[in-house]
Each structure stands twice: as C-alpha cells, then as structure tokens.
Amino acid sequence: MTGHHHQHQQNPPADTDPAEFWDERYGQSDRIWSGRVNPVLAEVAGALPPGTALDLGCGEGGDAIWLARQGWRVTAVDVSAVALQRLAVEADRAGVADRITTVRRDLLAEGFPAGRFDLVSAQFFQSPLVLPREKVLPPAAEAVAPGGRLLVVEHGAPPPWSGLDADDPRFASPEEIMAAIDLDPDGWATERQGESRRTATHDGHTGKLVDHVVLVRRR
C-alpha cells in the first residue's frame, strides 16, 4: 500500500476478498499512488549498503523501483495482480526489472515468501480492510536477516481531508506498533521510534501529515 495519497471510504464488509477489493480499487484509475518513493524509506535505505529487500504491500512499485535503482534486489509482494502488473511495466521502463521479483500473495491467508532479507519494509499497511498488525508484523520481523532491519511506517493521524476520527484504531502510536511486532529485546536494537512530518496535497488541499516510524535492527 505504498503511496502519498490515501482515499478513505466507508470500510467494506469484513468478509470482503482482499484480492478482489484491491484489484477493483486499482482498476478504477490508471494510477492510484504517486509513483514516488516514500520519504522515510528513502532516508533509511539511502544510508545503507544495498542488499536484499522485502517490500510488503508494494502497490504499483514506487518504493521497489527506487530501491532497485539504488542497487537493491527487491522481492515486491502485493495481494493485487493489477498493481503487480503495473509495477512490472514500470520496472521494465526504469530498466530494473532484473532486480525485482514480484509475488502475488495474501500475507494473512498465505503467509510470507521464503527467505531472509537485509531490509523488510512495511509502508502504510493501514487499509480499509482489517489487517491486524499483530498478525503481519511478527512474521515481517522473522523475515529479517541477522544484521538486517525492519522498517514500519504508518499514518500517525488521519489526513486533514479524510474526515476520519483521530481515535480511529487504524492509527497506532509508535509504542503500539512496537508492541505488535513483539520483539525479543535481547535480539534487536531499536534505531528509531517516533514520528516524522511531511506536507502533502490531495485534490487541491495541502496539509501536514504525521507518520509514525519504527526502525529495528536484528543483532
């Protein structure tokens, strides 16, 4: 679910099929997200030597393509075949298709792809569908190689134009995100836990957005 613009709507029914939901959502327009890399990811990954990366909920591939351009080998996972097809076209256009492997998968139903990665990135995993952090983030941490990092970035508050309540449970504090990952403190070092602010524009409205950031390194 990579992107700078999130259009919130009424939550769909709990039994909605995630693949159908996201394929339909992506099918509504030629592009949903901006195609730009998420700024916190660029800041964190830009300071690291390129290695292997797992991009969870990669969407149309703004992050995956940016990482590949920096020399990373990226496994890009999303539940939407439509999004992954767009990613493949963009990766080809950017000349980095050989460094990106796409995987269509419902992480909750089917689990994570095999392997360990130097960087596991979960950017804006909030969704109109129920996606419990405590079910997705511990396996995300499991997928981190020794010495590697898990980066979780979430909306810390509703965008001013969303009409959502600030107490909406989709907006967790950095402490709540950390609790959901449920790490053994002896095995991990916390490199960052707090908020990041940025300015964004949506349908002509400009506002300040708060992101909550957790960055942990496996010892």
UniProtKB/TrEMBL annotation:
- Pfam assignment, any one: Methyltransf_25
GO molecular function terms noted in the UniProt entry: methyltransferase activity
Recorded protein name is Class I SAM-dependent methyltransferase
Q: Which organism is it from?
A: Micromonospora robiginosa
Q: Which CDD domains match?
A: AdoMet_MTases
Q: Where is the Methyltransferase domain?
A: 54-148
**What Enzyme Commission number(s) appear in the record?**
2.1.1.-
Keywords attached to this Swiss-Prot or TrEMBL record, sorted alphabetically, are: Methyltransferase, S-adenosyl-L-methionine, Transferase
Top-rank taxon: Bacteria
The top EC class, named as a word, is: transferase
Q: What is the phylogenetic placement of the source species in the record? A: Bacteria, Bacillati, Actinomycetota, Actinomycetes, Micromonosporales
